[in-house]
Specification:
This protein is mainly alpha-helical. It is built from 17 helices and three strands. Among the domains are: 96-232, no CATH class; 237-355, no CATH class. The chain is rod-shaped, with a radius of gyration of 31 Å.
């Protein structure tokens, strides 16, 4: 917009600690931030004389920013994943020079639908400064009760990072989930939730103290309840899948009585290799469960589920023990091994729901946790009071 940051008709003069000034409009400030509305309401506007108005004087309020020493040095939750990149700052988003002016300049830009300026430099491939500026903007907006005025801009600029953003969230989802809830970003919130729930039962997988900190307020309690509920849903899903693997009969093995025929010995004798293969498969699953390779395993079963999905198990060399008890001709062994592959293919769909990847990022190697958690629109905690959240 022409005129920013000193609009000719602006009626509010704002002066920062460094002397930087903004000449803005009281109506826009009051509509965007309840704190600013309260400040303006408590101050009697300057009465302009006729001569001053004729000379183009428009300023009716003068606000001078002041530092809040008692809150200096706060470490916002969303920045803890970048311990090597720290700043001195307080709860209202203020930071040591030169960040203070930049944070509030970005805030005022958002009020006028001007893109905020988040620094991105070639020597910062992980966009730490960029993300830092976005998080500090949310802090400043929160202090002024004006998050709705900045949330869309912050979300849009974070999503532009694409893979870099997803990598950061995957690495430290606990640092992102409350920020995502504050800016009401379903995509970022779901991404953080996918990784938190997937790691929930892993030893040391989730930083519960960070998630349960009382400073997150009612929003934090609501998010924690959702995490616990989704973690239970995932565990129940694992149990259901594991039970299904032991109880499932492929359709081609099932025979039903018809009006003209009743399945006899001849029909079932043709299935002997299928029954043998099904028994071998179930023995493999039972052995895996008793060996703690299932949902109670160190990796909470992910390797077992992936094995079932890939079919990379019970290969012919592993059947030596079976054939030592049940001798067969070469042709019989080949037939059994072939049918066992059919049975293994029949079982692959049973684990698919656990291996659905609902994360946004692409990666070279598989993660050590499941990413199948789904968060529905009605489960997003946007209706929670935002005071004290983050």
């Amino acid at each position: 917009l022409n005129g920013y940051p000193t609009f000719p008709d602006g009626d509010v003069l704002i002066i920062s600690l460094t002397g930087k000034t903004w000449k803005l409009h009281s109506t826009i400030l009051a509509n965007a931030a309840s704190s600013l509305k309260s400040i303006l309401a408590k101050q009697d506007p300057i009465k302009l004389t006729k001569r001053e108005r004729e000379e183009g004087v428009t300023i009716r309020w003068k606000l001078v920013m002041d530092e809040e020493p008692n809150a200096k040095g706060a470490d916002p939750e969303g920045l803890k994943f970048k311990a090597s990149f720290s700043m001195s700052r307080n709860f209202n988003g203020m930071a040591e020079e030169p960040q203070f002016d930049k944070i509030y300049d970005n805030f005022f830009k958002c009020l006028y639908n001007i893109n905020p300026d988040f620094s991105a430099t070639p020597d910062d491939p992980q966009f730490q400064k960029y993300i830092n500026h976005a998080c500090l903007l949310v802090e400043a907006a929160k202090y002024l009760n004006a998050i709705p005025a900045v949330r869309l801009a912050v979300e849009a600029h974070l999503l532009r990072l694409n893979q870099v953003l997803w990598d950061h969230i995957c690495e430290q989802p606990e640092s992102w989930i409350h920020l995502a809830a504050q800016i009401q970003s379903p995509l970022i919130f779901r991404e953080a939730m996918v990784h938190i729930v997937g790691r929930f039962d892993l030893k040391g997988g989730v930083k519960e103290d960070m998630l349960m900190d009382d400073k997150h307020g009612e929003l934090g309690h609501q998010i924690w309840d959702l995490i616990q509920r989704k973690a239970k849903d995932l565990k129940d899903k694992k149990l259901r899948v594991e039970r299904h693997l032991l109880e499932y009969f492929p359709d081609h093995m099932c025979h039903h009585e018809g009006q003209a025929t009743v399945p006899g010995r001849a029909i079932y004798s043709e299935d002997i290799y299928f029954w043998q293969s099904l028994t071998i498969f179930r023995q493999y699953c039972t052995h895996s469960y008793l060996s703690n390779f299932h949902h109670r395993g160190k990796d909470r079963g992910i390797s077992f589920y992936r094995n079932i999905a890939s079919g990379n198990y019970l290969k012919p060399p592993s059947l030596t023990s079976f054939f030592s008890h049940f001798s067969m001709s070469k042709k019989g062994k080949e037939r059994l091994c072939g049918v066992l592959e059919i049975i293994k293919d029949d079982m692959k769909p049973l684990v698919e729901e656990l291996l659905v990847d609902r994360s946004q990022g692409s990666r070279g190697k598989e993660l050590g946790h499941l990413t199948c958690t789904e968060v529905f629109e009605e489960e997003l905690p946007w209706d929670i009071e935002m005071n004290g959240a983050l």
